[in-house]
Amino acid sequence: MTDNHNFQTSYLEGVNKFQGLRSKAFWQEMISLLTGQSSELLCFEEVRARLRLRAESYKGLQDIPLEQIVGSVGRHKEFTRTFLPRTDETRERWGRVYAKMNSMEGVPAIEVYQVGDVYFVRDGNHRVSVARELKAKTIQAHVTELPADIHLEPGMTLDDLDEAAVYVNFLEESQLKFTRPNHRMIKLSNPSAYIELLGHIYLHGQVLEQISGEPVAVAEAAADWYDKIYEPAIELIEKHQVLLLSGDEKKGCTPADLYIWMVNHLRDIRQRYGAEASARKFSHALVDYLAEKKIPIPRELLDEADSTVILSRTQVIKQVEEEEHRKTEQ
Fold first, then answer.
1. Range of 302's domain?
2. Which of these three, 145, 174, 206, is where a domain ends?
3. 22 and 98 share a domain?
4. CA distance 155 to 169
5. Does residue 150 sit within a domain?
6. Structure pTM?
7. What H or E segment, with its residue span, contains residue 145?
8. Closest of 232, 303, 300, 304 to residue 262, by C-alpha
9. Strand ranges (DSSP E) for 38-103?
10. Is 112 helix (H, G, I), strand (E, B) or coil?
């Protein structure tokens, strides 16, 4: 009898708290309309489709941070991003869960999908909502992980996911996720620039074909581009801390952004000066980059002896023709 009385008391307390949370949810949504920032949970089905998540594996029972639960499977419209209830329809259920979580009986662990550093609720949305109201930091969950090619974190919006999806498409098109599974993330501030990177890979493939005289698959071209062009360029940028020196790191410029600038800069110089610019390297481009911004150039960068030379398809064809001509004269 006492247990039932305590449960009823906790239930009524939960119902009262629910009404307060509904008011908070209303104002949270009003603020989101004014600021243009979404207050909705992320829809797991949309995330899974956009990021092409396929494989999954059970990781066991864990204590997970409540703040890193950012979405739901099938019920993302019933709660705000901070798991405040958005409708009155769940009042009684919310009250019962509140009462159980405050009783000796407790509640079962929730079930979640993990993608990167964030979680999506498969079962237990009300338990998450109540736990947050009770000021808990963590909650027990059965975790199933879906490996992702990108890093997800709390606060990401659907627009952020769209940008991430462009990167996923780039990895699949280039096959880098398979040929170089441990590659460093190629992060661009402008997602549309991934198309330009694919152009670099296709051109690199044409260069390899001209040199070898045999067809080169996109996957092979991308792996060779990554190893011999992209990675050395990024190592050079980081070695000399160019983005830090220029202050562009604080403006959101990434090493991959600077890599694209370097390639375009070297090609512009080649078009302007012709064969005289053929020996220009990435280190020269970085010197020009800092010089344009009137930033003192480190002595180590001036003395850099990198071997990264960007060749155009025309230059390679010319080299191949010269080599064939040399062989015919022997």
1. 158-329
2. 145
3. yes
4. 22
5. no
6. 0.69
7. strand 138-145
8. 232
9. 42-43, 57-65, 69-72
10. strand
Amino acid at 251: K
Number of other CB atoms surrounding residue 20 within 10 Å = 11
At 202, the amino acid letter reads Y
CA nearest to 282, candidates 269, 272, 295: 269
- The residues, any chain, with a CB within 8 Å of residue 186's CB and separated by 6 or more, are 167, 170, 194, 197, 230, 256
Residues 133-143 have pLDDT tens digits of: 999 999 999 99
Instruction: Please identify which residue in the block is written with the tokens 């338990």.
Output: 127
Higher pLDDT among residues 330 and 305, named by residue: 305
Residues 178 and 307 in one domain: yes
Residue 320 confidence (pLDDT) above 50? no
Domain count, the chain: 2
**Full strand arrangement of the beta sheet holding 118-123:** 42-43, 69-72, 118-123, 110-115, 138-145, 57-65
97-121 pLDDT, tens digit each: 999 998 877 899 999 999 989 999 9
Q: Which two tokens stand for residue 6?
A: 């305590």
